[in-house]
Amino acid sequence: MRCTGCDYEIPDGVKFCPLCGARQPIVNVPAPVPPPPPTYGCGRPTEEVGDSPKFVGFGGAIILYFKNYFNFRTRSTRSEYWFAYLFVKLVGICCWLIGFVLPGVFSTLATLVFFIPDLAITYRRFHDTGRSGLFPLIRCITNIVWDAVMGCLSILALLSIFGNNNPDIEWSTLMLLILFVFILGAVPLGLKIYEIVICCLPSKNEPNQYGREPRY
Questions:
Q1: What is the pLDDT of residues 12-55, one digit of tens each?
Q2: With the CA atoms of 49, 55, 59 and 61 taken in that order, what torsion angle do they form, in degrees rounded to the nearest 10?
Q3: What sign for the dihedral angle of Cα 106, 112, 118, 124?
Q4: In this structure, are residues 88 and 94 in contact, taking their beta carbons and an 8 Å threshold?
Q5: Beta bridge partner(s), residue 39
Q6: Mean pLDDT, all residues of the chain
Q7: Which residues, listed in sequence order, are joined to residue 2 by a DSSP beta bridge?
Q8: Is 62 helix (H, G, I), strand (E, B) or coil?
Q9: For the chain: N or C, fewer Cβ within 10 A?
Q10: pLDDT digit string (tens) for 53-106?
């Protein structure tokens, strides 16, 4: 702004001119407008992206595991994933021990409870390395198909062993089918190995389309 008395250039908001001493009119200077928060590929601002610390302990990982039960869009760090994985395996061992008293009840319940959050955290772990989360879904579908085929072949094997009067079931043909399925089983095994390798990789230390970088 300029002084009303001597036309000297003075900073905005000054009450008196430093050159001539003339009193200046009060001018309401608008407050600066803060810039909008940065957005990522998903179009959500930083404040809406779930917080994923660089390192989280066992208890914190369990809390995040259930807090992000249906979260397939953000990122999860390596420590969060593997502590949650350890928790699920420990629960699985406990269910297996309880299974000697109540066969199959707790194991089936644990499988149903952990299916969605297991898939979700693997999605987020892939996102954290800058990869699409569709691979864990493909690997999961492949495992389900392979388990279903193995179940059908097991039933055919039992029928061939205990129902020899059934001429439609040839033992040699059944053995060839079982061998083929075991060879085909190398596909889900290879996909699982690849998933483990990716989940062991460190986090990308820069924002990507799935959220900001993990913070300490």
A1: 777 777 767 677 776 665 666 666 655 544 444 343 444 567 78
A2: 50
A3: negative
A4: no
A5: 45
A6: 79
A7: 9
A8: helix
A9: C
A10: 778 899 999 999 999 999 998 999 999 999 999 999 999 999 888 887 777 778
What is each CA distance from 199 to 85, 96, 127, 192, 204, in whole angstroms? 11, 26, 10, 11, 12
Instruction: Give strand pairing partners of 16.
Output: 23
CA distances from 1 to 8, 10, 13, 15, 31 (A): 8, 6, 8, 11, 16
Query: Which of 79, 87, 208, 192 is CA-nearest to residue 136?
Result: 192
**Total residues belonging to the chain:** 216
Cα–Cα distance, 43 to 49 (Å, whole number)? 10
Q: Is 180 left (phi over 0), alpha (psi -120 to 50) or beta?
A: alpha
Q: What are phi and psi of 195, to 5 degrees?
A: -65, -40
Torsional sign, CA 198, 200, 206, 209: positive
